[in-house]
Amino acid sequence: MLRIENLKVGELPPLSFALADGECLAVDGPSGAGKTRLLRAVADLDPAPGHIFLDGAERREMPAPAWRKLVRYVAAEPAWWTDTARGAIRDREGNDNPKGKASAKGKASAKGKDRLGWLMDALGLDAALLDRPLNLVSTGERQRLALLRTLLDEPKVLLLDEPTAALDAGNAALVEELIRYQLLAGRAVLLVSHDGGLSNRLASAHLELARAVPRSQPAAVSGQAA
Amino acid sequence: MSAPVLTQFDLAIAASLILLNAAVSWGFRLGLERTLATTALRMVVQLSLVGFVLTFVFAQTSPAWTIAVALVMAAAAGYEVVSRQQRRLAGPVPFVLGTGMLLFVGTLFSVIAVAGLIGPEPWYAPRYLLPVLGMVLGNAMTGVSLVLDAITSAAVREQRQIEAHLALGASRFEAFSDVLRRGLRTGLMPILNAMAVAGVVSLPGMMTGQILAGADPVEAAKYQMMILFVIAGATALSVLLAGFAAVRLLTDDRHRLRLERLLPATSSA
Question: Do B208 and B83 fall within a single domain?
């Protein structure tokens, strides 16, 4: 359960809402309304006053890296700090078992390998892509690889920013299926998408950021937003 | 055995050589004439003053004057480090931190070199301590400027990569490990190059000075080696401290990248 209380994001009025496990909330609003900033604030990537609780624990009660392992932000245009996708995956894997005992490490990476193969299949990605230089990988493939690296260590909340923007219809359907599977597995999803169909099929509720403007505002503002 | 004394006339002839710089600037319309004039003038004033100041300080027996001059030198180096940045951090923290760090490293290594190795009487004799401190500070300053500039510009350029790493649960030092490593390498490059070409391409300044002053070249070379090792150690330590400080200042305790702490780029760097 993700609970947000009086979260102050940019110029928006304070936001409060809750998201149950397995539930998807679509964040709607015009460009520049602050959808991406909201997701980044929830991941604690930008400073934002207010409270965010995950299963009763406020984000400041745990170190920020631990919070981001649980509450996972996926950018609209994912960036890579390595030459290949496997490099980035190995970076994060090695980090989760620092100086671990050989047996524990072996077990963990065997489990990780199963999950990696399963996710590659689910996203329609060829195994060779993992070792291809990322500048030779297409935008759509990079976007799916970013989703893959996000789901490898099973976070509790997914903050997805335009997860299907760079994808053709077939691959978008695969990603939608994978998101639905994550919901069934009990993960909460905060979804930003310009694809209204995707939001409507996945989300059980909508958060309209333009509507969050107080009603005392002049009518011209809501007229502009519409 | 002392060097022949330079007359004012000799200096005037040397100064006329700077007209060549002016000709280049004018011919290619580099617009550097003003800068050229002010920096040349600045150099003359600074060196003349420092000649008198050092004469005075060397004549004193009290270490208080040595400490005062060391403080001024470190502050000047700290100011240079900050002003050489293309994108620098807002506020007085970088200057204070940089000056303090350079003073600490400079003092530590100068005392090692002078008290531990040269061993004059008394060990804090400003005639030895201050020139060594100057060489250590000058080189450390170059290294620190380079590492800071490398890390801040990489942080701006690779913001998305760093934040992608952070979003997956990396700590700030994990997310910055590549940037930090490249920055440290950049900062160490000048002293490595200086050691590589010392005596082949260039005769280092201190050795040249000692030879001009009539010292035995073999003895001068031994001194130069010692000083280069001291400088290399001091540069390594200050580059390391500056690199870690830069990562800390560009991030916060919630492991967030805080690029808004950087001032807009200046063209004068």
Answer: yes
